């Protein structure tokens, strides 16, 4: 895949919003940065993990904070370049390639911009296959790649380095720093080798992200119902990928709360013409679980996406509004995300749910 013009950037950002499952930060902010790099003739180079040397030095960059706050903050390409310079100085070596910590929302598009700016390849992979609210909720961490050192900077250049004994502690410390600096900072973290990326990443997610965004646009242009095209792309059981249209209705109630630099929320929807047919979606930065008339139909780590009912445009949590006509789509997580050791970290229990994980294809046969 290549990102060479504004349309490619918009398609990538749209796919990132879809895989952000409501959170991950509004990709529009990263879209503007990536678009500026493309207009300057600096194009991101996306490579497969098997193109890396085993001893290649790989790094992630990402935002940490509350998604609603992000839209009030400026994303400075100069800041991100300084962050990379400082991190290389701290590590004592140059970075050979970048990888997104999460493919959803701001972070995938922003990392593409940083890769273009620094003329570094970006690996077609990430650590989630979606977005999650905590930095330790990645396959890298599950399989023993430490997040530390985590270098943190805000848009004013304030900087901190977190060195912790485990990634949950790194998250706690980073979140506290984020809260003290306006609930939105940027970080460089998860220094890894090429071998670790090959073994532990969720692969082919940059290309999937771009394909989803392009599919939504082309389906709007060519089909009466854009959801037909989206489901045709994503529901491929022969490839182990399952997608379901879970609900069609309108938002009738919204509860939002910013707490500890996270965006918590509950979204209640009614089916068109039937107020007794109700879906409730729960979120912590990202949409975590959906219950249709009290029955669970999707749960983490499987993906849950809320889209505009007419255009299939993904809607982030902070942009939901009372009365919006929406459709809810569920998508199976990547196979690595469903392994027992991964479910122990970012399955339902990791978010306080008592339920055992059940795949979307079993909940919605």
TrEMBL record:
Domain S-Me-THD N-terminal: 7-163
Source organism, top-level taxon: Bacteria
Pfam families: S-Me-THD_C, S-Me-THD_N
Domain S-Me-THD-like C-terminal: 166-360
UniProt cross-references to InterPro entries, sorted A to Z: S-Me-THD-like_C, S-Me-THD_C_sf, S-Me-THD_N, S-Me-THD_N_sf
Name this protein carries in UniProt: DUF917 domain-containing protein
Natural source organism: Elongatibacter sediminis
């Amino acid at each position: 895949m290549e990102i060479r013009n504004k349309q490619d950037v918009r398609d990538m950002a749209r796919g990132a919003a879809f895989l952000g499952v409501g959170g991950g930060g509004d990709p529009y902010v990263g879209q503007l940065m990536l678009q500026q790099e493309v207009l300057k003739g600096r194009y991101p180079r996306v490579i497969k993990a098997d193109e890396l040397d085993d001893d290649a030095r790989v790094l992630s960059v990402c935002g940490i904070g509350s998604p609603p706050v992000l839209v009030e903050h400026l994303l400075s390409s100069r800041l991100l370049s300084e962050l990379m310079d400082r991190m290389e100085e701290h590590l004592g070596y140059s970075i050979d390639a970048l990888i997104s910590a999460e493919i959803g929302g701001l972070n995938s598009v922003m990392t593409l911009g940083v890769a273009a700016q620094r003329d570094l390849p970006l690996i077609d992979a990430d650590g989630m296959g979606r977005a999650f609210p905590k930095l330790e909720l990645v396959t890298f961490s599950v399989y023993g790649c430490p997040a530390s050192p985590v270098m943190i900077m805000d848009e004013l250049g304030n900087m901190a380095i977190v060195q912790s004994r485990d990634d949950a502690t790194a998250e706690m410390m980073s979140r506290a720093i984020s809260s003290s600096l306006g609930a939105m900072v940027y970080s460089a973290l998860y220094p890894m080798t090429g071998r670790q990326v090959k073994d532990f990443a969720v692969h082919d997610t940059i290309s999937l992200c771009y394909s989803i965004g392009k599919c939504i646009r082309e389906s709007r242009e060519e089909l009466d119902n854009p959801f037909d095209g989206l489901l045709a792309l994503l529901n491929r059981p022969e490839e182990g990928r399952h997608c379901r249209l879970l609900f069609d209705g309108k938002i009738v109630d919204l509860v939002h709360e910013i707490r500890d630099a996270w965006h918590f929320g509950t979204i209640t929807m009614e089916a068109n013409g039937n107020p007794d047919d109700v879906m409730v979606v729960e979120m912590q930065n990202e949409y975590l679980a959906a219950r249709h008339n009290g029955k669970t139909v999707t749960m983490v780590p499987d993906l849950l996406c809320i889209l505009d009912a007419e255009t299939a445009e993904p809607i982030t949590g902070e942009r939901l509004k009372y009365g919006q006509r929406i459709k809810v789509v569920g998508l199976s997580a990547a196979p690595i995300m469903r392994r027992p050791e991964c479910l122990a970290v970012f399955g339902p229990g990791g978010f306080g749910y008592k339920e055992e994980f059940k795949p979307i294809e079993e909940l919605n046969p």
